[in-house]
Amino acid sequence: MTSQLKDVSSATRSFIERTHHILIDGDWRQPRGQSNDVIDPSTGETISSFNGSSPEDVDDAITAARNAFDHGDWRHMAPAARAKVLWRIADLIEENKQELAELEALDGGKLLGGALNGEAPAAAEAFRYHAGWCTKIEGRTFKPSIPGLDLEGQTRLEPIGVAGLITPWNGALVMGAWKLAPALASGCTLVLKPAENTTLSTLRLGELICEAGVPEGVVNIVIGSGSTVGAILGEDARIDKVSFTGSTRTARSLIEASKGNLKKLSLELGGKSPVLIFDDANLDDAVNGAADGIFSNAGQVCVAGSRILIQKSIYDRVVKGLCDKARSIKVGRTLSSSSQMGPLISAQHRDSVERYVQQGVADGAKLLCGGERVEGPGYFFEPTVLADETTRSCVWSDEVFGPVAVVTPFDDEAHALRLANDSNYGLAASVWTSNTSRAQRLTREIKAGIVWVNCHGIPDMAMPIGGYKQSGWGREHGWKGLEAYLEHKSIMHRID
Ligand code: NAD
Predict the structure, then answer these.
(1) Residues with catalytic annotation?
(2) β-sheet bridge partners, residue 244
(3) Residues 6+ apart with CB under 8 A from 171
(4) In ligand 1, which atom is closest to the CA atom of 171?
(5) Integer Cα distance of 460 and 477 in angstroms
(6) Residue 68: DSSP 8-state
(7) Distance 170 CA to ligand 1 centre (A)
(8) Do residues 193 and 80 both lie within one domain?
(9) Same structural domain for residues 220 and 351?
(10) Is 234 in the pocket of ligand 1 (CB under 6 A)?
(11) For residue 496, what pLDDT is reported?
(12) Buried-state track 145-165, b at ≥16 Cβ within 10 A, e below 16
C-alpha cells in the first residue's frame, strides 16, 4: 500500500500531521476526550489522529456560544457588515480550495476533481448566497382591526439564538457550509460538530472563519463521537435549535434528547429516491443520468437515485445500458485523476453495503452486475445493479448508502407513480420523459421534497431541499432554509 499523502500539497500534509485543536470562544484548544484515528478510505492508512472533545469541552463551547449570543455584538451588527464577513469567508474558501479539496479527498473519500470543482465552490457559494440575505431579513407593519383603539401592528424576525449544527460524513465541507452560512446570516451563534470520521475539512474551515473576522464565541467547533459530543448538543437546554443532517435513526434519538427544552429541530435525513424512466425519454441521457444519480460519490449521497423504475417497453435496453455503464466505471483512489468512483467511507460501512446486497439477493432480488467488494487496500465496492420486480427485498425499501441500484419495470404512469411513492422516505425523485404534461402530473403527485425533470441531483442555493415522510423536518437552502434560524415576533403598539 502506498500512501496518498505524498500526492497532496505540503500545506495539506502539514495540516493533516499537526495536532488537531477545537475552536472555543475564539481559541484553538487541545480537546480532552478520547483519541480517534483519521483514516484515508482509499488506502485504509491511518494518516493522522485527533482527540475528541470531552463533555467539559462541549459544555465550554455551549457556554461560549450562549455568551456570544446573549452579550455579544454579532446579532446587533449592521446587516451589511455581517454580509461582508460572510463574503470574506467565501473568498477565503476559494483561495484555499486546493487544500480543502485535498482534505475532503483524503479524509472524506471524495474524488479530488469533484471536491475541487464541485464541493469547494459550492461551499463558497453557500456563504455568498447567504451574504445577500443579511440585508433582506425584514418584518412587516399592519393596521390591526380592533374597534375603538388606535393600534400599530408589526412583525419582526430575530435570530433564534444558539444553534447546534451536526453534519454527516458524506459531505463535511459543503454540508457544514450549508448550515453555518444561514446560521451566521441570521445572527445566531453556534456550536458545530462534524462526523467523527470526517473532521479535518471542518477544522480548516473553522480557521478560515476566524481569519474572516467572525467575532470570538460566535462559531465554536467540537469534534468526536455522536453518542457523546453530538448527544450533548441535543440535550443541552442552552441550545435553542439543532440543525441535523444524518440518518433517520440518529434523528429519532435527537428528538428524544431535545424534549427537555423543546428546542427547534431541523432534520435532513435519508432517502430511497426513485428515478422514473419513460419510453419517450432521451434514453442516452436517462441512462447516464440514472448511473450518475446512484454511482457518484459511490452512492453516499442523500438524494442518490437508488430505485430506478423503467417502463416495460424499454426495460431491457435501459438495464443493459446501466449495467454497461456500471461495469465501465473506473473505481480507484481519490487522488488519481483516472478514478471515476472512490471508496466507501469505512470498513464498517463497506461491510454494511455488502450485507445489504447479500440480503437483497436472499430476499429474491436478482444480481445483474457488481455486488462484490474490491479486494486490496481501501474500502471499495463495485457499482452494483439488482433487479427486484416484487419490490419486497431490503434493497428496494432500505437506504443502502452505497453504489447499489435496484431496477424495477412498470406498465404505465399510474403504476410508476405507485412504485415511486412506495417508500417510508420522501427526499427526492427524478422523472425522465419528453412529455411535459406527464412531467407536470408526476411532479405534483410524487411525495418528495425535490423532483428533478430530465436531470438528477442538481442542487441550487435558491432551491429548498428537505424531506417528506421520514426524510426529515424542514428545508435547507432558499428563504425557507434561512427562516429555520429565525424567530417571528409580533408587536402590538397602542398609539393613544
Ligand atoms: P449519522 O446519523 O450516523 O451521523 C450524522 C451525525 O450525527 C454525525 O456527526 C454523528 O456523529 C452524529 N450523531 C450520531 N449519533 C448522535 C446522537 N445520538 N446525537 C447527536 N448526534 C449524533 O449519519 P451518517 O451515517 O454520518 O450519514 C449518513 C446519513 O445522512 C444517511 O442516512 C444520509 O441519507 C443522510 N444525509 C441526509 C442528507 C439530507 O440533506 N437529507 C444529506 C446527507 C446525508
Answers:
(1) 268, 302
(2) 166, 267
(3) 108, 119, 297
(4) 43
(5) 8
(6) H
(7) 9
(8) yes
(9) no
(10) yes
(11) 81
(12) eeeeeeeeeeeebebbbbbbb
Residue 21's pLDDT is 98
**426 and 486, same domain (yes or no):** no
d(CA 71, CA 79): 18
| 231 CB near ligand 1 (under 6 Å) | yes
285 and 241 part of one domain:
no
Q: Is the CB of 484 under 6 A from ligand 1?
A: no
Give the closest residue (by CA) to ligand 1 atom 9. 195
- Domain membership flag for residue 15: yes
Q: Are residues 183 and 219 in the same domain?
A: yes
How many Å lie between the centroid of ligand 1 and the Cα of residue 416? 30
Q: What CATH number is associated with residue 432?
A: 3.40.309.10
pLDDT along the chain (496 residues), means of 10: 91 96 98 97 97 98 98 98 98 98 98 98 98 98 96 98 98 98 98 98 98 98 96 98 97 96 97 98 98 98 98 98 98 98 98 98 98 97 97 97 98 98 98 98 98 97 98 98 98 94
Placement of cell 481501501 in the chain: 378
Residue-range definition of the domain harbouring residue 416: 274-460
User: Does some domain include residue 466?
Assistant: no
CATH number where 106 lies: 3.40.605.10
pTM score of the predicted model: 0.97
Between the CA of residue 155 and those of 141, 183, 331, 474, 486, what are the distances in Å?
Answer: 6, 20, 54, 22, 12
Q: Are residues 290 and 197 in the same domain?
A: no
Cell numbers given for 136: 433582506
DSSP 245: E
Task: Say how far apart CA 443 and CA 432 lie, in whole Å.
Answer: 11
- The total domain count for the chain is 2
**Can you give the pLDDT at residue 141?**
97
The rounded distance, in Å, linking the Cα atoms of 167 and 79 is: 27
pLDDT of residue 1: 62
Residue 2, pLDDT score: 86
Of 165, 286, 138, nearest to 222 by C-alpha is: 165
Give the closest residue to 68 by CA, choosing from 190, 217, 192.
217
Q: Examine residue 465 and state whether it is found in any structural domain, yes or no.
A: no
Cell of 71: 452579550
- Alpha-carbon distance values, 265 to 69, 158, 488 (Å): 19, 17, 16
Cα 128 to middle of ligand 1, angstroms? 26
Same domain, 250 and 296: no
**Per-residue exposure over 362-380, b if at least 16 CB sit within 10 Å of its own CB, e if not:** ebebebbbbbebeeeebbb
Q: State the residue for C-alpha cell 441535523.
A: 244
Q: Are both 300 and 237 inside the same structural domain?
A: no
Residues 423 and 443: their CA atoms lie apart, in Å, by 16
Q: Which residue has the cell 432480488?
A: 365
Residue 485, domain member (yes or no): yes
Q: What is the DSSP letter of 299?
A: G
